[in-house]
Amino acid sequence: FVAGIGALVPFVAVMVILPQFRYRLTRITTWLDPWSDLQGNGYQTVQSLYAVASGGLFGVGLGQSRQKSFIPEAHNDIIFAIICEELGLIGAALVIILFAVVVWRGIRIAMNARDNYGMLVATGITSVVAYQSLINIGVVTNTIPNTGQPLPFISYGGTALVFLMGMMGILLNISKYPKDMKNTE
Q: Is the pTM of this model over 0.85?
């Protein structure tokens, strides 16, 4: 009994001292059951799941989204749900395939880079695009907790787009000088 109380005291102290703990715990419980708080923390997740489900195979058509008016900031972090609703499973699969092609080409560029530095930079840039895409799609489908990660090249926001375009420019520059050109310069 004494050992159990001794183990419980630090846990309670952390809960009282760190207010972020309750916030994080609420985010995790909302992720596990978003329908438990439909009007509060689970609202955005439930609305995005409705959008994904209502898209069907071919979608409702470009610009015809009904959930766009219910999802807060639909043009930002939950844009993939609107893509799923408007373009359906076929359009969502096409977007995922396009991201896979970008990642595959980035890996190829990294493998053919002239030096180790170029390889590491290309790998890092490719990883950013891959992880941001996976995290955003996972959030929209409620596979992972909501993180606020934008969908690369698609989500609204100038800063993210400027940096992604800059990274793509660097990646293209790395691809311009492959391994076989190393000895020709």
A: no
**pLDDT tens, position by position, 79-133:** 899 999 999 999 999 999 999 999 999 999 999 999 999 999 999 999 999 999 9
Q: Provide DSSP, the chain.
A: -HHHHHHHHHHHHHHHH-HHHHHHHHHHHHHH-GGGGTTTTTHHHHHHHHHHHHTTTT-S-TT--SGGGTSTTTTTTTHHHHHHHHHHHHHHHHHHHHHHHHHHHHHHHHHTBSSHHHHHHHHHHHHHHHHHHHHHHHHHTTSS----PPPTTTSS-HHHHHHHHHHHHHHHHHHHSBGGGGGG-
Residue ranges of domains in the chain: 33-184
